[in-house]
Amino acid sequence: MGHSAKLGAGEDDARDADLLPGPLAGLKVLDLSRVLAAPWATQILGDLGAEVLKVEQPGKGDDTRLWGPPFLEDGSARPDAAYYLCANRNKRSLAIDFARPEGAALVQRLAEGADILVENYRVGGLAKYGLDAPALLRRNPRLIYLSITGFGQTGPYAARGGYDFLVQGMSGLMSVTGRPGGEPGEGPVKVGLPVSDLFTGLYGTTAILAALNHRHRTGEGQHIDCALLDSQVALLVNQAMNYLVGGEVPQRLGNAHPNVVPYRDFACTDDYVLVTCGSDGQFRALCVLLGRDDLAADPRFATNPGRLRDRRVLEVELARSIAPWRAAELLAAMAEAGVPGGPINTIDQILADPQIAAREMLRRMRREDGTEMEVIAYPARLSRSPASYRLAPPRLGQDTRAVLAAELGLDEQAIEALCAAGVIATAGPARQDREAERTA
Description:
Layout: E1 4-6, H1 11-18, E2 28-32, H2 37-47, E3 51-56, H3 82-85, E4 92-96, H4 101-112, E5 116-119, H5 133-139, E6 144-149, H6 164-170, H7 195-218, E7 222-227, H8 228-234, H9 237-246, E8 263-267, E9 272-276, H10 280-289, H11 293-297, H12 304-309, H13 311-322, H14 327-337, E10 341-343, H15 347-351, H16 354-358, E11 362-366, E12 372-376, H17 400-408, H18 412-420, E13 424-425, H19 431-439
Parallel strand pairs: 2-3, 2-5, 3-4, 5-6, 6-7
Antiparallel strand pairs: 1-11, 4-13, 8-9, 9-10, 11-12
Helix pairs in contact: 2-7, 7-8
Protein name: CoA transferase
GO molecular function: transferase activity
Keywords: Transferase
């Protein structure tokens, strides 16, 4: 079993912390998902202590294992991509071909002992294997079964495949993301991360926890239908409410805020800074800092509605006053004056930031073959039952043999027969075993 270590902390202390039972300890999750939205949900459950059994296709595995470079160099002929590593820790990998009747029977038996099942196949795609929600809830009425799809189990788009980029466009998100018309680089832009996938995974996890409480009260499992499009529409938040209340269709504003001014990026002599004034007092403090008491005293800008109405005039004046500053000096002065703001970090800069180090947001994990990697930590801090980092993202099929023996009672002869028939697969020798073979 792999173990983790907190950066800057003793390895023994980290190992002890990761042996504590998490808040979801004792729950068993059967993970039939791949790519991102659903694996993100199951990784959260695993971080919080649940046992997650990830079922993958023999010889191929999760699609994202090949979504590189970069790949984790571990000496194997087929290393895993970084994309796969971001969403698959705290899981055990079983390679089972459930398109074969024998494989489907194995997964059905695993579902009978599971608390939660998560899948992201197209609507109706698992029914032919007897792995759909109605079939498995008959076998296990306490099962909580989460289906994540592009458009949900109902509606005119239900049969369509859904992808993050597609949903970012269809949902309206891209219509408010990007530079406005008339500016250089104008046009809709997707968010630089697959946010529709990630938000859906988060909503799915929240729904699972709600269903667990319902089961605690009633003993009933249930089917959860979670769609990328629904999740992203729900997350239009203030932009959608601006339209529902005000009747005006929101437009692209670049880095500006639709409701708050000043709340955007400004250019200094050497870099950009973010200015995020959320109150009239913060705006006045910014004006004093910039030596622009005239802006603070101007009745047009005294309150946020006025600043919003005359934002173009105000932002031109602020840009003129900010331009001579060096970014670091302005941000230091803003912090001293109580004006919220910050830099636009690159990813390497934020991962090296002292705040991230203080919050222990980078964790080091070690695979069972000794290969080390760093991962981004689970962000919420539970004072009594924290998240843990017990298992590094597994190699394809590394746990098939052990799990089938422990969970289903299969003996070595039965497992070997399934391997020979191509129904299951087990991982090849770990790196240290291969090296031992070469030196023998």
